[in-house]
Amino acid sequence: MKTQIFSGYGRQGAIVFIGAAMTLAACQSGPSAEELARDKDRALADNARLEAALHAKDSLIGAMALSFDDIEQNIALMDDQGKVLHANMDDLEKGGDKRDKILKDIQLMNGLLHESQDKVTKLQHELDRSNYKATDLRKKLEAIQSELATRDTALMRMGDLLARRDLTIEQVNQQLTAFQLDIAERGATITQLEKDINTAYMAKGTYKELEKQGVLTKEGGIVGIGKHVGLNTNAKPIAFAAVDVRELHTVPLNAHRVTLVTDHPAGSYELVRDAKDDVAALEIKDADRFWQLSKYLVVEVK
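Structure (tokenized):
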């Protein structure tokens, strides 16, 4: 029977036919178990490498975000210390503790600047070594470098000014030890927190003046009838004067009529009148109670 089947093809044709049949059988049976296992191992290895790369990228981004926060806090602290220094510059002539405080403040600023610059350099190296494109991170680094360069220039100018006020450049540029810097930074941060806690915001003037500044607005009513004056919730900070609640005891007014737009408990203040029965000033009698409802004081005068 087999001789009849292959008789038309000859011996060579029979071999080709058998080979094709074997190939077809192999294709139908699919990859072997060993091949499937190897493919699975390769897929798992590729997936592990991808997950490791993503984890490394996320870790880098997270670490850089924390460093950015630290540097920005340093910049804010430098700016605050700079304001204090300019305000206390005249105390240099007093010598003693005042002079030492000014010197420590500028040394703290120098320390914060160098610490921030070192962090930026480290972040730059880490980003370059990671081979990530990370365009946004690089732009953020460039922006921070620019801000630090601005503070560096300001510190150099301040150093020259202090040198002209009888402080040597060596004193001004003296580096605090890591421990001293840490202590000074903590002290400055606490001082700033106390300042923030005790800062309130004040605005006073006629309705037109306060409206023009964006502090007050008239709401409610119809066709101008029945409207009441209220605070503008979109008022810009520049419209208010920052005050220290520990030091503000009296607000001069010199007005015929006075309205406190903001809420302050009765008995925590007194409107002091002059001989003509005009309101000469607002006297804060109990600061804690006066500011407990709002850290804003808006006074409309007429």
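Residues 1-9, 14-18, 220-227 have pLDDT under 50 and may be disordered. The beta strands are 199-205, 216-219, 228-231, 241-244, 250-255, 258-260, 269-273, 279-284, 296-301.
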